[in-house]
Amino acid sequence: RSGSKHSTNPADNYHLARRRTLQVVVSSLLTEAGFESAEKASVETLTEMLQSCDAGIKGMCHHTCFNVDTLPAYAKRSQRMVITAPPVTNQPVTPKALTAGQNRPHPPHIPSHFPEFPDPHTYIKTPTYREPVSDYQVLREKAASQRRDVERALTRFMAKTGETQSLFKDDVSTFPLIAARPFTIPYLTALLPSELEMQQMEETDSLEQDEQMDTENLALHVSTDDSGAEKENASVLQQNPALPGSRNGEESVIDNPYLRPVKKPKILSSRASWSLLLGTKSLASGRELG
Amino acid sequence: MPPTGLEPCKMNRKKGDKGFESPRPYKLTHQVVCINNINFQRKSVVGFVELTIFPTVANLNRIKLNSKQCRIYRVRINDLEAAFIYNDPTLEVCHSESKQRNLNYFSNAYAAAVSAVDPDAGNGELCIKVPSELWRHVDELKVLKIHINFSLDQPKGGLHFVVPSVEGSMAERGAHVFSCGYQNSTRFWFPCVDSYSELCTWKLEFTVDAAMVAVSNGDLVETVYTHDMRKKTFHYMLTIPTAASNISLAIGPFEILVDPYMHEVTHFCLPQLLPLLKHTTSYLHEVFEFYEEILTCRYPYSCFKTVFIDEAYVEVAAYASMSIFSTNLLHSAMIIDETPLTRRCLAQSLAQQFFGCFISRMSWSDEWVLKGISGYIYGLWMKKTFGVNEYRHWIKEELDKIVAYELKTGGVLLHPIFGGGKEKDNPASHLHFSIKHPHTLSWEYYTMFQCKAHLVMRLIENRISMEFMLQVFNKLLSLASTASSQKFQSHMWSQMLVSTYGFLKSISNVSGKDIQPLIKQWVDQSGVVKFYGSFAFNRKRNVLELEIKQDYTSPGTQKYVGPLKVTVQELDGSFNHTLQIEENSLKHDIPCHSKSRRNKKKKIPLMNGEEVDMDLSAMDADSPLLWIRIDPDMSVLRKVEFEQADFMWQYQLRYERDVVAQQESILALEKFPTPASRLALTDTLEHEHCFYRVRMAACFCLAKIANSMVSTWTGPPAMKSLFTRMFCCKTCPNIVKTNNFMSFQSYFLQKTMPVAMALLRDVHNLCPKEVLTFILDLIKYNDNRKNKFSDNYYRAEMIDALANSVTPAVSVNNEVRTLDNLNPDVRLILEEITRFLNMEKLLPSYRHTITVSCLKAIRVLQKNGHVPSDPALFKSYAEYGHFVDIRIAALEAVVDYTKVDRSYEELQWLLNMIQTDPVPYVRHKILNMLTKNPPFTKNLESPLCNEALVDQLWKLMNSGTSHDWRLRCGAVDLYFTLFGLSRPSCLPLPELGLVLNLKEKKAVLNPTIIPETAAGNQEAASNPSSHAQLGGFQNPFSCSQEEEEIDMDTVHDSQAFISHHLNMLERPSTPGLSKYRPASSRSSLIPQHSSGSDGTPPTKPPWTVELARKGAGKEQSPLEMSVPAVPAAPLSLFAKEAAASKHGEHRRRHEHKKKKKKHRHKHRHRHRHDARERERDREPFAFSSPASGRSARSPSLSD
């Protein structure tokens, strides 16, 4: 829409300018012919005539036997009025405001009937550089105060949104302390502090590789320390048939009683424990010692 | 004579025992413990035990076992129902109606009660009657199998349940249970012979939820599912003979880690902690290697288990083939400070596996050998692991501790000998508790006891050389391991018990040296040596005149006679001299080697052969002496106060290479605030090769010196420029470098220096502004992002530094502390503390070190009047559910508040917590802290001291703490601190003002009426009864005095006493009594082994024994019944008690001496008839009050 406005306006301007020039020509011809004044309407009419004559000058030459060759002489007549060239209204150089870079042509895979790319300034990026702060002291200072501000803001926010305790009875806002909240399992937060987790995460990149080397060496052993006893039992139970074979094959299988599979209850053992319970006969005690 | 409990056995030691004579009339060979059901929700346990015993006397008709809190349903012997009595006098030491409130009375009664159930005296809470059908069997000394069904409901001690209140199954919640206790406490969770000297093999079975693991002693033989597959049974077998006291158990949803280096070793921890466990235990195999190498002996058990649990009773508890640790010892690789501490705990527990678990002790008085050896080899491990400097520093620290404790309390006796009725019956009359039993000991005393034991072992090593020492250990171990593999019938098992005698014999066999004097000095006798030394240099004779005095009259000291090493550093070198300290020689002339000739520029040779340049300008021109050290090797348990000139201390600090010498000189330099001292300390601080602990000590000394020199001090505050140079950026000196703790030495220094600097004060006695800004900057610029290690301890110390900088607020007319009149510096400090404390909520630090420091700092601010004093904050942090370190810090603040503000409410709150808190350690710690920082003491008037409080505390120690020995002893300690030994002064006067003094056979004014202040004048007090008011150590007679004076007030008590015993039958702890005792055994229940008459037809009702047994501590009771006419006969009973005080002559005062002689004569005379009289005495009593005896029995017989 704005584009159409742009295009009509210059055209209008052109017509107006031309018409004004023709008016001046008519007026000067009239002055030349000896008129001192003319009515506006007559000037308008003459201008209109001139305009149309100008437009159809060729045809006129044909039909009115107007000799074109006389024109240069006429133009150079001595008593002509010199009209200064109309002030060249700076050709409305299409406003190239903020051109940044070159308009890109369509790449080959985009059919040409597609609209053109918008002006480069709409997508082009222009990196700007500032001189980096390299002063160590300032850096440390900034880092320190930034961290402090963040911490302060965060803790204050937390204090404002939750329960607080105060050291002063009369003032609860200046030094707000987040209220102490007991944990259900206090040792977990104390021994696995989130603070260290964060620090560790930063470090893992560098450490991971080393650790991997370590764990690989111990992999066989470490893999045995399965956490859930239940899980471990299940898995070991499954492996059970293969166990004797693997034991022969690999010496690295650890024979630790806690890693052995849990046995299924036997009738015999249950009877023995029953008898123990009833007190009729005791298990290993006497026999063991002879 | 089978022991009856009146004599706490101990005869075996006196006889110079060839072997071990069991105090029990039977031998245990095997025990089965089976726990079929553990209910975490209800905190209950159901199971049975089966003991296989062989009678050793023909007429054994009663078997006494130990059992506490267990509900016993049924006892069978060889499948025959057996009658039993359950009686535990320790449940309520003094009967509740008693008006007695003096601690002496309590301590005696308590010792008697413990003795009455002491397995080492052949006693026990559970008395089982052998069915008459089996008497024949017994006479043939044939095997008996005692089968006991029991359950345990909500145990308050012995077993500790941790059940977090979250959603999920017990395994998901991390619920666990473990055995715990102080010394022999196994009787709290199953019936047994709870003695370290009764060894047997074990079969242990635990049926637990399938998601749980049961860890116990010995080898896990198999794990079997129950029929419903919901539970598993863990079968353990322990074939090495082990004492019941070394049996333990831990059940929980543990994560299992097989040690990657030693597959026989398994580690267990609570869910989620496996990574920490891996790191923490990764070092353990080195400890194993070390001990096995020095002892040239393999680890005795076939496996080893470590279990890390929450709410631990103690940080480390060693049991046969298994150790239980606090989960708080676990740490990751990023933690610096905890690492050495945890490793020390691991090493300690492992040392106790050899000596303490595998090798057990014959009796309580042999405990020192085990503690000594395990502590000593642990020290060797320290030396190897942390270096000689750390080791010597540790020895010095331990020495200082024991010296301070002994001087304060009057001595720690390693090897107490208690002859029944002998002169030295009570070797510890200076203490407010009996040392006859581990269970009556104050915890602090026991800690110091262990400390002294290992120091004495070191002294023995000094005497016989380490090589021989290790040979002796090896010999003990190899004897024991041979014995352990033998069958019971070979009677070899007692070789696994160590006794003082056996140990000493082994030493003399191996080394051929006589160490008897050393043993006599340090083991058979309590006290330390206190030397005062000074010297003069005689220029003419070129002789050093050394004067060494001793103080052996103050409590806790003893006289030292023997060699003493003195090292003199002269210009020409260092020379050792051995002086003989004798009775009367104070002066010792030591010839000097060098003339004072300093003009020659020459290097000075040191002790270690090094030669150094010294600036000798500070020296005395006439003397060639640089410094002198007395007993440099710490081969005497002593305190040395030595006088030498400041420049000598400075030389010593700079050039002596021994860290102990450096530390001593730092301590001495505190008294010499001069620029030269300052320089010496600064140089030490900067010297990188210097031991870091010495440098840390130098920091604090420098702060003190700077404060003394405040008016002449030039330059920046002490240590500031030093710190800047060492730890701050070169370009911007006010900013600390980003943290890098790779060098631990400088890490520790970096942590310590600000803390010391904060102690600096300017002329107005304020912390200089410059220092405060400096510390605040350290906090501000602290940057740990690039660090491999956590900085939580560092930041915590920065908060400590802030707290150190706080000085008392200038207060105008006690105005109320508000925010408006807050000092701007304090405002800054408070700002930091608030931020730190709040950040901890969002990003907690390891072990919450920062919260702990913040709480401490807040208390400091309160105490100094900057912040209104208010315990509310601390009370909220002290609640159950916070991490234990936080709780302790908060409780410490509340304890302090209670003292400073004399708050009755807070004291009540604390006392309530002592009784109700779920964590035994916290309860113990509160008592401990209250004792250390008491709200008032016996000599101070306080509004807090009132009758209700006395009753409350009395109740606490009398019956409220019967489930935990340590707690009860803690309560006794507190009672002693608050009220002293005698009747608390705040109590109203007893009904009768007169007491009968039986010894002098006259009535005197009740000593409790004499006001406390009058007793202060001890020298002048001629009336012996007033001595009862004094602390026990001041007056050897105080104990006996109390015994002999019968408070008329306690006439009620006698009646109460009887009714108390009547009530005993209705107690919940004796459920089996009325319900299960078969009627047939009714009449045969009575047999009694009264001394010497064992096997004679039963004539006495059972409860007479009870009374007689109690008589040891409660002589009053039988007497009181016949008080109207005080009989002459019972006097003999007291003779023994009176004689008890005969010990410890070395520290008697002169005016006592005469009296003593007189009395001793009398006592000896009495003693001769003592035993006989006692027998006689008991008989008439038993018959003279038949009513009490019969009626006591009647309820049980009537049904």
What is this structure's SSE topology?
The complex is a heterodimer of chains A (290) and B (1199).
Chain A: H1 2-33, H2 40-55, H3 57-63, H4 70-75, H5 136-161, E1 164-165, E2 177-178, H6 186-191, H7 194-222, H8 229-239, H9 243-249, H10 267-278, H11 284-289
Antiparallel strand pairs in A: 1-2
Helix pairs in contact in A: 1-2
Chain B: H1 11-14, E1 26-39, E2 44-55, E3 62-65, E4 71-77, E5 80-81, E6 84-86, H2 103-116, E7 126-129, H3 135-139, E8 144-153, E9 159-162, H4 170-173, E10 176-179, E11 199-209, E12 213-216, E13 219-225, E14 231-243, E15 249-252, E16 255-258, E17 265-269, H5 274-281, H6 284-294, E18 304-309, E19 316-319, E20 322-326, H7 338-354, E21 360-361, H8 367-409, H9 443-464, H10 466-485, E22 497-498, H11 500-511, H12 516-522, E23 529-538, E24 543-550, E25 562-570, E26 573-581, E27 587-591, E28 604-605, E29 611-612, E30 625-630, E31 638-642, H13 646-655, H14 659-669, H15 675-686, H16 692-708, H17 720-727, H18 744-757, H19 769-780, H20 792-804, H21 824-842, H22 849-863, H23 872-877, H24 884-901, H25 904-916, H26 920-932, H27 947-960, H28 965-979, E32 994-997, E33 1002-1005, H29 1038-1044, E34 1045-1047, H30 1051-1063, H31 1071-1076, H32 1102-1111, H33 1116-1121, H34 1131-1140, H35 1150-1184, H36 1186-1198
Parallel strand pairs in B: 1-11, 17-18, 18-20, 21-22, 23-31
Antiparallel strand pairs in B: 1-2, 2-8, 3-7, 4-5, 4-8, 6-7, 9-10, 10-15, 11-14, 12-15, 13-14, 16-17, 19-20, 23-24, 24-27, 25-26, 25-30, 28-29, 32-33, 32-34
Helix pairs in contact in B: 6-7, 7-8, 8-9, 9-10, 10-11, 13-14, 13-15, 14-16, 15-16, 16-18, 18-20, 19-20, 19-21, 20-22, 21-22, 22-24, 24-25, 24-26, 25-26, 26-28, 27-28, 29-34, 30-36, 34-35
Subcellular location (chain A): Nucleus
Region (Disordered) (chain A): 224-258
Domain Transcription factor TFIID subunit 8 C-terminal (chain A): 109-157
